[in-house]
Design a protein that fits this description.
With 319 residues, the protein is of the alpha+beta class. It has three domains: 10-95, Orthogonal Bundle (Arc Repressor Mutant, subunit A); 114-254, Beta-Lactamase (2-Layer Sandwich), CATH 3.30.450.40; 274-318, no CATH class. The chain contains twelve helices and nine strands. Strands 1, 2, 3, 4, 5, 6 and 7 form a seven-stranded antiparallel sheet that branches. It starts with 18 loop residues before the first helix and ends in a 14-residue tail after the last helix. The relative contact order is 0.08.
Length: 319
């Protein structure tokens, strides 16, 4: 499990950085991109991406512009060398925000008119496509002897995936007792070796957050995964938060509909088994279900009296 990271905002946080992190911050401040830094330090791109993510967490910043500013103010990247780089990174940050907004609008347009079970499939598809990731996943918690996380919408490498179950205790969002997003930049399978989703789909990075019910309890999860580090320039955490609220509402609505149908079916069975016949009547006195025996008492068929006010029925029962 990842250790605790103490965040010290701004230039004061530079003191807590490792020697390698200071080297990476210095090169970022001088305007070098991740591949260039990897080549200069003779390290893999994935390793440099991990250092960059660590810098953001320790310094309490999210953008390249903020990292450049801290590098300049701390003296790791002299100001006179970096004026052009600073403006270049500012332009890059603006471009990243535009891309993130475009991704958000793409997802919203794809799911705006979809409801029910199809909603989750479309949400997974558009999340994966807009964020350029291998997999997007929506799961519902199923209570039983063992709490199960069941996929209700999954898009993996350009196709929909069939329903898959995994014990919730093995999944990243439920191992930690927190309602905040869980982000694993690399090594997700090693951290959660028993997670069916990570193992079966061979995913290396993970970002997800729980879906919460009206009472604040966890009812599911919304997550994205990839076989390489997730591109943070598209603000995936923000996008997940936006659509988690919609996914939670839709999941609660579906559960309420299923519970209502189950209750109605139970009462129908009771009515059908009554030898003398019976009917289900709503609060306005209208018949919503009637057994054949009950309808026969009025010389009718069941379908003929559905929606009729019970007090207005006339037939053999009045004789």
């Amino acid at each position: 499990m990842p250790g605790v990271v103490i965040v010290v905002n701004g230039i004061e946080g530079v003191k807590s950085l490792t020697r390698r992190e200071k080297q990476v911050l210095s090169l970022i401040g001088r305007g070098h991109a991740v591949p260039e830094i990897a080549a200069k330090l003779n390290r893999s791109i994935r390793t440099i991406q991990a250092h960059r993510y660590s810098l953001g967490r320790k310094l309490g910043v999210r953008t390249s512009v903020a990292l450049v500013r801290i590098a300049m103010e701390s003296g790791l990247a002299p100001l006179e060398e970096n004026e052009d780089n600073y403006h270049a990174d500012l332009r890059q940050a603006i471009a990243e925000r535009k891309r993130a907004r475009s991704a958000l609008l793409t997802i919203e347009s794809g799911i705006s008119s979809v409801v029910g079970e199809d909603f989750f499939r479309f949400l997974a598809q558009y999340l994966a496509s807009a964020l350029h990731l291998k997999c997007a996943f929506i799961g519902s918690l199923i209570k039983g002897e063992d709490l199960i996380l069941r996929s209700i919408g999954c898009w993996i490498e350009g196709r929909g995936e069939e329903q898959i179950d995994c014990p919730a205790r093995f999944c990243p969002c439920y191992v930690q007792n927190t309602d905040t997003p869980q982000y694993i930049q690399t090594g997700a399978q090693q951290m959660y070796p028993d997670c069916t989703f990570l193992r079966q789909w061979n995913m290396d990075s993970y970002m997800g957050l729980p879906l919460l019910g009206a009472d604040g309890t966890k009812i599911g999860t919304l997550a994205v995964m990839n076989d390489s580090p997730i591109d943070e320039s598209l603000y995936p955490e923000l996008i997940l938060r936006v659509f988690a609220a919609r996914a939670s509402a839709e999941l609660q609505r579906l559960r309420a509909e299923r519970a209502l149908r189950a209750s109605e079916e139970k009462h129908r069975m009771i009515v059908e088994e009554l030898q003398s016949g019976g009917a289900i009547i709503d609060c306005q006195g209208r018949i919503v279900h009637a057994s054949p025996q009950f309808a026969e008492c009025y010389g009718k068929r069941p379908k003929d009296i559905i929606g009729v006010n019970f007090l207005k029925l006339k037939g053999r029962m009045n004789n």
